[in-house]
Amino acid sequence: MFKSLIDAAQNSTFKSPFSSADCQTAAPPTLPLPSSDDAVSTRTQLSPNHNFAAAAAAQGDSCEFGSNHYFLLCGLGGIISCGTTHTMVVPLDLVKCRLQVDPAKYKSVFNGFRVSLAEEGVRGLAKGWAPTFIGYSMQGLCKFGLYEVFKVMYGNAIGEENAFLYRTSLYLAASASAEFFADIALSPMEAAKVKIQTTPGFAKNLREALPKMTAQEGITAFYKGLVPLWMRQIPYTMMKFACFERTLELLYKYVVPKPRADCTKGEQLIVTFAAGYIAGVFCAIVSHPADTVVSKLNQAKGASAMDVAKKLGWSGLWGGLVPRIVMIGTLTAAQWFIYDAVKVFLHMPRPPPPDMPESLKKKLGLTGAQ
Question: Where are the Solcar repeats (predicted)?
Answer without folding.
Answer: 69-153, 166-250, 267-345
